[in-house]
Design a protein that fits this description.
It is a single chain. By secondary structure, the chain is α/β, with parallel strands linked by helices. It folds into two domains: about 280 residues, Aldehyde Dehydrogenase, Chain A, domain 1 (3-Layer(aba) Sandwich), CATH 3.40.605.10; about 180 residues, Aldehyde Dehydrogenase, Chain A, domain 2, CATH 3.40.309. The protein is built from 15 helices and 22 strands. The strands form six sheets. It has a seven-stranded mixed beta sheet, with helices on both faces. A six-stranded mixed beta sheet has the order 11-10-9-12-13-21, with helices on both faces. Strand 5 and strand 6 form a beta hairpin. Helix 2 packs antiparallel against helix 4 and helix 3 packs antiparallel against helix 6. The longest helix is centred in the N-terminal third of the chain and has 25 residues. It starts with 6 loop residues before the first strand and ends in a 5-residue tail after the last strand.
Length: about 500
């Protein structure tokens, strides 16, 4: 366990507050605050080490050394360590869920039931995939050909403030499975569950420097990490604006870069759909206060069912309970940070000023960081609330008259991460599954995924694909070995 000097008591859980570099917890000369969105003014959780360029340099140097050791582990040895980490995650479910609830505001019950388990599953998935992997092997041009994966080198992994624990495991697991060392930079708004994960990794058996954690502000230590020429992979989840800066740094060093950059997902409902199921699922797009990149935030409903859909939607939205994230009956958590809640409210205020119609909500909740579940009918498809990612509990509502118009509206933003379609027609499902421009389309369901499937976005929703073999190939240098037929020992 980290030394007492690096521990904070967060809701009864001991959480490291330093950086994990080369297998040891180290401090910085300055810190930043972690406060709880459950009671922003009164719940100071920890003072966390604020990394700088020297911290970044030390972390990359440790990762270079750690890569030498970790890349020499056999596939079976790597898999064994990752399974130990998965076991440790499961053993510490209660603590991880509690800390993430306090630090980011995520519903504690959901963390216990789904997200911590998903974190362990991510490590198990990639551990199993590397063991089960079969090299591509074929004969051509009198040659025996095979493709092998070589570990690429130190990887910088930058994760967002929403669902931080699960999304950290989603990115770290394939990098480690591929044989790379990692430097994890979590978001400064929710840094604490990443520290718990790093402490568990430190106990799991990774060699020193294979797993490093650097805390701090993105513009400071994050910028230094992605600019370091010793880094050989960069993977990021966050905003397009930050991705552009990271992409330029990656280009300078010719480093492969993958980015998942959020969305503005269309949620299409046709007259032949199960209307009640569609309305209920649409209301659940307010989950986690809308701080979900995959959410279907643009409701596109066939004109003939407008009234009936809205009645059902409002009934389900009215039943949602805004409350303390630690309480099991709470449906909607507070927003993660007061600056973000104010940003979301700014979108709504500008929408009102520009003539968009607020059908429900549209206000801050006094005395908390909650924001009312909000539905806006835009005056135009060009309205800011339609075209820009709000990342809050704000949905838009538009209607269409036929399938062609539905597809046109669905494809009318610069984003293309996910989409949702509710229809009773298998033929329409097949057509729209191909016609809608997004990396993922759900039909008559939402947020159900096979972790081996490719995941990523079109347009400004991202670069590259993650998931299963796609992530392992990204984190490797693929090499073709060709041996002339007849070559003998």
């Amino acid at each position: 366990m980290a030394e007492r000097a690096f521990l904070a008591d967060v809701g009864g859980v001991a959480v490291p507050t330093g950086h994990l570099i080369g297998g040891a917890w180290v401090a910085s000369s300055s810190t930043f605050e972690s406060r709880s969105p459950l009671d922003w003014h009164r719940m100071h959780l920890a003072d966390v080490a604020r990394g700088d360029t020297a911290t970044a340099d030390a972390a990359v140097a440790a990762a270079v050394e750690g890569f030498v050791a970790w890349s020499r582990f056999t596939v079976a040895e790597r898999a064994a360590v990752m399974h130990v980490l998965a076991d440790l995650i499961e053993e510490h479910t209660e603590e991880i869920a509690h800390v993430e609830c306090l630090d980011m505001g995520f519903l504690e019950a959901s963390m216990k039931l789904r997200l911590v388990a998903r974190g362990a599953a991510n490590f198990r998935l990639y551990a199993d995939l590397i063991v089960e992997h079969e090299e591509r092997h074929w004969d051509a041009k009198d040659m025996d050909n095979r493709v092998v994966r070589l570990p690429a080198g130190p990887a910088v992994v930058i994760t967002p403030w929403n669902a931080p624990f699960m999304l950290s495991t989603w990115k770290l697991a394939p990098a480690l499975a591929a044989g790379n060392s990692v430097i994890h930079k979590p978001a400064e708004w929710s840094p604490l569950s990443a520290a718990l994960l790093a402490e568990l990794a430190n106990q799991a058996g990774f060699p020193p420097g294979a797993y490093n954690l650097v805390q701090g502000i993105g513009e400071e230590v994050g910028a230094a990490l992605v600019a370091d020429p010793r880094v050989r992979r960069i993977t990021f989840t966050g905003s397009p604006s930050t991705a552009r800066r990271i992409g330029k740094a990656a280009a300078d060093n010719i480093v492969p870069f993958t980015a998942e950059l959020g969305g503005k997902g269309p949620f299409l409902v046709f007259a032949d759909a199960d209307l009640d199921a569609a309305a209920k699922k649409a209301a659940w797009q307010f989950d986690d206060s809308g701080q979900v990149c995959l959410a279907g935030t643009r409701l596109l409903v066939e004109e003939s069912i407008r009234t009936e859909f809205l009645e059902r939607f409002h009934a389900y939205a009215d039943a949602l309970i805004l409350g303390d994230s630690r309480e099991p009956d709470t449906d909607i958590a507070p927003m993660a940070h007061p600056d973000h809640r104010d940003r979301v409210h700014g979108f709504v205020e500008r929408a009102r000023a520009n003539g968009d119609r607020v059908l429900r909500g549209g206000n801050k909740v006094a005395g908390s960081l909650h924001y009312e579940p909000t539905l806006i009918e835009p005056a135009s498809n060009d309205s800011e609330v339609v075209q820009s990612e709000i990342f809050g509990p704000v949905l838009t509502f538009q209607t269409f008259t036929d399938e062609a118009e539905a597809v046109q509206l669905a494809n009318s933003t610069a984003y293309g991460l996910s989409s949702i379609v509710y229809t009773g027609s298998r033929e329409r499902a097949e057509r729209l599954g191909r016609a809608i421009r997004s990396g993922l389309t759900w039909v008559n369901t939402f947020l159900v995924r096979d972790l081996t499937a490719p995941f990523g976005g079109c347009g400004i929703s991202g670069i590259g694909r993650e998931g299963g073999e796609h992530s392992l190939d990204f984190h490797a240098d693929l090499k073709t070995v060709m041996i002339l037929d007849g070559t003998t020992v």
